[in-house]
Amino acid sequence: MPAPRSLSSAVAIAIVRLAAPWIALAAVFLILPTIFHSGSALTMLSLIGIMIVFTLSYNMLLGETGLLSFGHAVYYGLGGFLAVHAMNTVIRNALPVPLLVVPLVGGFSGLLFGIIFGSVSTRRAGTVFAMISLGLGELVASSSLILRGFFGGEEGVSTNRTKLLHVFGLNFGPQIQVYYLIAGWCLLCMATMYALTRTPFGRMCNAVRENPERVQFVGYNPRMLRFIAFSLAGLFAGIAGALAAINFELVNSAEVGAGQSGLVLLAAYIGGIGSFIGPVIGAILVTWLEVMLSDVTDVWQLYFGLLFIGMVMFAPNGIAGLLTMHAPLWQARAYGSMLRLALAYLVALVPALVLLAGLILVIEMTYHLSVKMSEGRTISVFHVALDSGSAMPWVVAAVLTCGGFWLFRLTWPVVGAAWHVALVRAQAERRTK
Predict the structure, then answer these.
(1) Which H/E stretch holds residue 381?
(2) Could you give the angle at the alpha carbon of 42 between the alpha carbons of 39 and 48, nearest 5°?
(3) Cβ–Cβ contacts within 10 Å for residue 240, how many?
(4) What is the pLDDT confidence band of residue 431, given thresholds at 50, 70 and 90?
(5) What is the pLDDT of residues 220-245, one digit of tens each?
(6) Which residues, 6 or more positions from 392, have their beta carbon under 8 angstroms from its beta carbon?
């Protein structure tokens, strides 16, 4: 008799451990609007939720299966367009369909086009797949300006989410209601995609990424695995597109363009494609930077490009990879070593910020002189008015850039030595334990 009880208790403990992170995440989603309750903050949180689903769907291709796609926005945009058309059809015919189920329309649309386009593109991998995905993306993007009846031309297609069937007294007019709708679907999609990574299918996708020939030797079809992963990625991208359509009540040709595909690629790489949490971090950071930088400067896309280049060159595993590097220190509880390492990071941070300030000055003054010279030579950078036509601001920018770079190079060996000492001590402490 004791054996069944111990078995049931072990199963219960395992279920609690599996469910605990998702319960905590759901609690975070519920609490966030009470902390950030302004209209702009709720809009930002909604955009982050949409981008998390979109980036994780892209990670199913690149991070899990090793498929570099340059046209993933196709399934995001088509899911949004078909969701808007479905909403307008429901409104015209007064059908009893609530807004809660509209993301399913986007999901099935993304799945359908994922099956159609995936049957062609997943026949090959590597560079060939990337070029095919780019061609398909450009094909759909160009068609969006030709097939005006479906895509609405440059103006796009609009809708009104408040005219759908109201359930539980919700009309989804206030942004807070839209946020909770997006948060619910985001949580569901995150849990589903994470569960897929833990299945035998997910493991075989990782094997296809690492060595497709060996996968074929053990009896699996790499092309079929790529095709299934591609179709599922289209499904979740379509859900993200439908959520975006609900949030903005408008979908236009930009949703299927190369810019949207580049944005999700940027988010996945900056966050780190080597782990599940990496794309989530990248989605949060990229969305926040996109909203904040677009209000500050007109060349925010240039800063995105520089950030992407820097991450690829110096941190190819992304932010999540940088955090994972410090896992041995946390596991060994080497708090003293971590404190000394943090101090070394702070020493290197000062010249890095100086270098960054100099680069920002150079970029902003160059852009102002080349594009906005008709508005005058005065430019405001860091809330300081500067005369971009005089020599002094350029001298300051050059000193900050060159001096910050030189000091940063001097501090880098200090960081390397502190890291080496911290790692050695952490390994020694783990042996003693």
Answers:
(1) strand 378-381
(2) 145
(3) 32
(4) low
(5) 899 999 999 999 999 999 999 999 99
(6) none
For residues 329 and 341, the answer to whether their CB atoms sit within 8 Å is yes
Q: Can you tell me whether residue 150 is helix, strand or coil?
A: helix
Among the listed residues 76, 57, 53, 77, the one whose alpha carbon sits nearest the alpha carbon of residue 67:
57
Distance (Å, whole) CA 335 – CA 47:
37
- Can you read off the two tokens belonging to residue 381? 């950078």
Query: With contact defined as beta carbons under 8 Å apart, do 161 and 103 qualify?
Result: no
CATH 3.40.1130 fits 36-320, yes or no: no
**Domains of the chain by residue range:** 36-320, 326-432
For residue 352, the cross-strand partners are none
**pLDDT band at residue 26 under the 50/70/90 scheme:** very high
Residue with tokens 């402490």: 429
In angstroms, rounded to a whole number, what is the distance separating the alpha carbons of residues 289 and 203? 33
Q: Which amino acid is at 394?
A: W
Q: What is the pLDDT of residues 327-366, one digit of tens each?
A: 777 777 767 777 888 888 899 999 999 999 999 999 988 8
Q: Give one DSSP letter per residue of 267-306, joined into a string.
A: HHHHH-TTSSHHHHHHHHHHHHHHHHHHHH-TTHHHHHHH
H or E element, residue 384:
strand 384-387
Tokens of 329: 């220190």
Q: Are 215 and 92 in contact (CB under 8 A)?
A: no
| Predicted TM-score of the model (pTM) | 0.91
What are the angstrom distances between the C-alpha of 68 and each of 131, 177, 376, 421?
A: 9, 36, 44, 38
User: Cβ neighbours of residue 160 under 8 Å, at least 6 residues apart?
Assistant: 87, 91, 249
Q: Given a cut of 50, is residue 428 above it in pLDDT?
A: yes
Count Cβ atoms within 10 A of the Cβ of residue 115 and give its class: 0-12 exposed, 13-18 middle, 19 or more buried.
middle
Are 229 and 69 in contact by the 8 Å Cβ rule? The answer is no
Of 283, 226, 372, residue with least CA distance to 48:
283
The gap between the terminal CA atoms of the chain, to the nearest Å, is 37
* 153: nearest Cα among 220, 66, 228, 250: 250
